Amino acid sequence: MASRSQNRAPRSPSTKKESNDEAPFDKRRRIATSRTVGGQTGNGPRRQPFSAVNNRQDVPAAGEISSVEGSDSVNVEFTKEEVEALLNEKLKSSKFDLKKRLEQLTDHNKRLKLCIKWFQRAEESNLLEQEKLRNALECSEKKCIDTEVEMKTKIEEIDAINSELQKTIATLEEKVAKEESDKLDAINCHRREKEARDAAEKLQASLSAELEKARQDKLVADQRVSTSEDLYNRAQEYNKSLQQYNSKLQTDLETTSESLKRVEMEKLTIVENLSNLRGHNKALQDQLTSIKASQDDAIKQKESLANELKCIRVELQQVRDDRDRQVTLLQASNAEVDKYRLNTLNSTVEMDNLTKRSNALEDTCSSQKERIRALECQLTAANEKLKMADLSASETRTEFEEQKRIIRELQDRLADIELKVVEGENLRKKLHNTILELKGNIRVFCRVRPLLPDDGAGTENAVISYPTSTEALGRGIDLSQSGQKYPFTFDKVFNHEASQQDVFVEISQLVQSALDGYKDLKDRCTRICCSIGRVCIFAYGQTGSGKTYTMMGRPEAPEQKGLIPRSLEQIFQISQSLQSQGWKYKMQASMLEIYNETIRDLLSTNRSSNVEMMRTESGVVGKQYTIKHDANGNTHVSDLTIVDVCSIKEISSLLHQAAQSRSVGKTQMNEQSSRSHFVFTLRISGVNEGTEQQVQGVLNLIDLAGSERLSRSGATGDRLKETQQAINKSLSCLSDVIFALAKKEDHVPFRNSKLTYLLPCLGGDSKTLMFVNLSPDPSSVGESLCSLRFAARVNACEIGIPRRQTNMRISQDPRLSYG
Ligand SMILES: Nc1ncnc2c1ncn2[C@@H]1O[C@H](COP(=O)(O)OP(=O)(O)OP(=O)(O)O)[C@@H](O)[C@H]1O
Questions:
Q1: What is the ipTM of this complex?
Q2: 541 CB under 6 A from ligand 1?
Q3: Exposure check for the chain: N or C terminus, fewer CB within 10 A?
Q4: Coiled-coil intervals in this record (predicted)?
């Protein structure tokens, strides 16, 4: 770790004492103060001083630390409280006992180093374990999902088979039921037919019997009819004979009457002969009486015969009626017999049909039974299969439950680990901030570009060399001018061989600060903890020294990408990885260009704004963008286009748009080289819904205009003079602003200058990194010396040179005036 005490102004005899003695003292005091403040505001329990930590067997004592410091194998463990105690530790020694304070600080630094190493180890192991667990979880989840999918497909298949089978069973059952009901119907019908046939047979038998009886009756009736006919005939004959007898009797009567008459006549004759004939008369009367008696007898016989005839007639009529009835009955019987015969015939036919149908139904029934048996077999098999499937499903379910349990366990563990990671992350942030604080709020890196074919004669070694002493290795640079060597020390010096990646590695932690936030502001009302992270990285140096290369690089070659694209990539990558810890980030980008006190909005799609700028350039008063700084240290530029960005792709296209806008602007302004300051601002606002933390970050990446090397500007005459004056004014103004801000002066010169856009980047809570870019071209050694001196003063300013010693206008410093 670079000690701030080694950052000093050029080691010229006059400044040596100042940088060696006073600067470290002030810087330490500031760090100690910031820690004390942090210790007071921290919420954790206050801990014993680190002497208690030193008493632990596993933590080396202060004296031992130096002996084990270089060894990575020492496994010193820290608890959270120990770390907090270490962070909150105060210096015990007297303010004036500087040596002891220095020793204590050195000791404290060593313990902090140990702690950081321990923390890095712990973080690595945590990350490893997290990775492992995540892999295991992913594996399990994948397996589980596979099993689930497999199980679901199996269940679906089984369900489909089952439902199909059930449908088949249902239709079969319906069919069977229908067949059964048909069969029952047929059987009933058959039974009814049988009964009807039996009844018909019985009826037929009874009818046959009746027919027989009727036949017999008919025979009897025929016999009776014949006897009756005989009797009738006889009665007719008798009647005839009676009629004949009657007619005979009539005739007899007539003859008798005639005889009577004759008798009477005879009577008369007899009367006359009465007396004679009285006797005769009497005889005759007797005869008459007897005839009358015989007549009465005959009449009686006639009446009885008439009665008998009547009876016979009635009887005959009865017999006739009887016969007719019998005939009708016989006819009806015959008809019925015919009907029965027809019925029997029909019944027989129907019976045959029914027998056939019954047989067919029996056949169907037996085939259906066969089918039912087969289906039952199928059903049993399917049930078996279903059971098996159920069994395998339950097994799978058990396995699934087991997997779920494992996942839950893993999730619990993951949650634990995530909690640990969050805690670790917080600790890391704290340590990270401590490291950054130790490194200083303003750091200065020096980068020397390689010699280019266009550069003047000579070699890089002729003007720039790098000291190899342990103290200055990687941090020192010596510039030779006119045989005199000017040594400088910075936080880091990158030689011409340093790649873009080498440079980025050194700044990546600072970039991370914009995402993490490093200063906590607690809202008393909402109790929401908001971390502020303002980071500014800017490149300073003469024209052609490699500022744009450092900041932007060559976009067409990925390995030569500059800090801006690399930082933004890192920001997006980390913000995405922090999503798993509940962080949600919103990013907004804006890009502007400051040219001769004029601001150009590089993301503006409104061409008219450019036209206005052009008019402004040509003296016509146009719309000006105004810069405002609020109480929270935020900078706002009115009417500046701010674009929401979600991916590095969007940023790349915005950078492309800005580059195009810049080149159009340059063409419009008839510029030949880049004399404008390019400011890229990324505003980050992050919220963690889980922990209710918030982060407000601002990342300012600035490519400053370089001091024009007039010999190469291509300008001539008045134009050359004008250009020279404008650039000198701009740069001396810039130097003043940077220097005043770096010293956190109340009075900032050129407060109205557009360059005060840099004010919040450098002042207040901002963490600033300044790149001083150098060209190894021997012909520009003067400019290089100016840049190095300026950078060294900014560097020295931060480490705490008392204000009264540095409180002077840089523009008055002859070493920093250009041209
Ligand atoms: N580290 C380096 N490696 C290789 N080439 C470099 C390096 N630094 C700068 N260059 C090259 O040097 C040239 C000048 O660099 P660059 O344009 O970045 O300078 P600058 O300081 O931005 O100039 P200006 O102030 O005019 O914008 C470019 O061609 C660039 O590619």
A1: 0.98
A2: yes
A3: N
A4: 155-266, 351-427
Annotated binding residue at 459?
A: no
Q: Which atom of ligand 1 is nearest to the CA of 673?
A: 26
Distance (Å) from CA 450 to ligand 1 centroid: 9
Q: Is the dihedral of CA 38, 40, 41, 47 positive or negative?
A: positive
Atom nearest to 551 CA in ligand 1: 18
- pLDDT at 69 (0 to 100): 44
In short, whether 560's Cβ falls inside 6 Å of ligand 1 is no
More confident residue, 443 or 727: 443
Best substitution site from 449, 494, 499, 556 to test ligand 1's pocket, by max atoms within 8 Å of Cβ? Answer: 449
Instruction: Tell me: is residue 806 an annotated ligand-binding position.
Output: no
Q: Which of the listed residues 548, 593, 731 should we mutate to test ligand 1's pocket, taking the one with most ligand atoms within 8 A of CB? A: 548
pLDDT band with cut points at 50, 70 and 90 for residue 300: confident
Report the distance separating Cα 298 and Cα 311, nearest Å.
19
Total number of domains in the chain: 1
Average pLDDT of the chain is: 74
Q: Tokens at residue 200, please?
A: 């018909």
Q: With contact defined as beta carbons under 8 Å apart, do 581 and 421 qualify?
A: yes
C-beta of 340 in contact with ligand 1 (< 6 A): no
Where do the DSSP E strands lie in 227-375?
Answer: none
Distance CA 327, CA 58 (A): 141
Q: Which residues pair with 464 in a beta bridge?
A: 479
Q: Is residue 535, in this structure, part of any structural domain at all?
A: yes
> Within a domain: residue 208?
no
CA distance 314 to 781: 176
What's the CA gap between 59 and 51, in Å, rounded? 11
| Structural domain containing residue 597 | 441-453+461-605+625-666+674-705+762-794
Gyration radius from the chain CA atoms: 69
Which of 697-730 are b and which e, b meaning 16 or more Cβ less than 10 Å from the residue's Cβ? bbbbbbbbbbbbbbeebebeeeeeeebbeebbbb
677 lines ligand 1 (CB under 6 A): no
Q: Do residues 756 and 734 make contact, with C-beta atoms less than 8 angstroms apart?
A: no
CA of 449 to the centre of ligand 1 (A): 7
Q: Residue 549 C-alpha to ligand 1 middle, in angstroms? A: 5
Q: Do the domain assignments include residue 582?
A: yes
Give the ranges where 440-451 is alpha helix by DSSP (H): none
Pick the closest to residue 131 from 621, 465, 577 (CA basis). 577
Q: Is 698 contained in some domain?
A: yes
